[in-house]
Specification:
- The structure is a single chain.
- This protein has four helices and four strands; from the N terminus they run αβββααβα.
- It is of the alpha+beta class.
- The protein has one domain (6-117): 2-Layer Sandwich (Nucleotidyltransferase, domain 5), CATH 3.30.420.
- The radius of gyration is 14 Å and the shape is globular.
- The N and C termini lie far apart (39 Å).
Length: 122
């Protein structure tokens, strides 16, 4: 048996968490994905498999605010506040947070804190 890569470990953590977390119409799932250069957030209703809102540091409307900071905590905070405002405009106040196997630290934490400040309840 060979060494397990970081990606495989993250995918195992993701599947463990995903077994417990399901988004429904009352509390959809706020899913976060981070890459080396960008961070992405989606609000998903798992009962119908539909994305209700999305924001990312690579989207054109946020690119002007973020600049080259898409891969750090400042960029994650901008994406978090954007996803919070989008969710509230669509009538979503409460969400279930899905860190997608990433540790709740750094950029993931900055995104969730900014979403809370903008009005989302976890």
């Amino acid at each position: 048996m060979g060494a397990v890569s970081r990606t495989e470990k993250r995918l195992r953590r993701r599947s463990r968490v995903r077994r417990k977390i399901k988004g429904n119409p009352e509390r959809p799932r706020l899913c976060v994905f981070r890459s080396a250069k960008n961070i992405y957030a989606q609000i998903i209703d798992d009962s119908v498999g539909r994305t209700l809102a999305e924001a990312s540091s690579s989207s054109k409307d946020l690119r002007s605010k973020i600049g080259k900071d898409g891969g750090n905590r400042k960029g994650a905070a901008v994406v978090g506040s954007a996803i919070g405002e989008l969710a509230l405009s669509k009538g979503v106040k409460k969400v279930v947070f899905d860190r997608n196997g990433f540790l709740y630290h750094g950029r993931v934490k900055a995104l969730s804190d900014a979403a809370r400040v903008s009005g989302l309840e976890f």
